[in-house]
Specification:
Length: about 100
């Protein structure tokens, strides 16, 4: 079992390095319009690979929907931040009432 855990560590390290290389290569391809268009034509035939590569290039490690962390103590915010927070809260409330 210990050898398996070590192998998982190696595989995750390889995966991390592969993604890093793909991001670098993607940046290279995106910077060259002719190469980018050729790559897109090829990837249009492989939609699964295209979506996976696009997630890697965008940095798909972040969740698609960010969770909002509400401050427990609004006094710790600056006055400007408090105003923005209040405006956002009012806009969300207004939007919820409109949907009803």
């Amino acid at each position: 079992m210990i050898a398996y855990k070590g192998r998982v560590g190696v595989l995750s390290a390889m995966k991390m390095h592969a993604k890093k290389f793909l991001r670098y290569a993607g940046g290279y391809v995106i910077a060259r319009p002719k190469l980018r268009n050729s790559a897109l034509m090829l990837l249009d035939c492989l939609p699964g690979l295209k979506s996976r590569l696009s997630r890697i290039l965008v940095g798909g490690t972040a969740p698609q929907f960010a969770t909002a962390h509400m401050p427990e103590d609004l006094a710790s915010l600056t006055p400007r931040a408090r105003q923005i927070y209040a405006d956002l809260k009012a806009a969300v409330k207004h939007r919820r009432e409109d949907k009803r």
